[in-house]
Amino acid sequence: MIRVVLPAHLRTLARVQGEVTLEIAGAATVRSVVDALEARYPMLCGTLRDQVTGQRRPFVRFFACQEDLSHDSVDAPLPDEVASGKEPFLVVGAIAGG
Amino acid sequence: MSKVRVLAGTRKGAFILTADGKRDKWEISGPHFAGWEMYHLKGSPADPNRIYASQSSGWFGQQIQRSSDGGATWEPVGNKFAYEGVPGTHQWYDGTPHPWEFKRVWHMEPSLNDPDIVYAGVEDAALFRTTDGGQSWQELPGLRRHSTGNRWQPGAGGLCLHTILLDPSNPSRMFIAISAAGAFRTDDGGETWKPINRGLRSHYIPDPNAEIGHCVHRIAMHRSRPDVLFMQKHWNVLRTDNAGDSWHEISGNLPGEEIVHPDKEGKTQKFEVKGFGFVIDVNTNEPETIYVVPIKSDSQHFPPEGKLRVYRSRTGGNEWEPLSKGLPQKDCYVNVLRDAMAVDSLDKCGVYFGTTGGQIYASADAGDTWSALVHDLPPVLSVEVQTLP
Question: Of B181, B80, B179, whose CA–CA distance to B135 is shortest?
Answer without folding.
Answer: B80
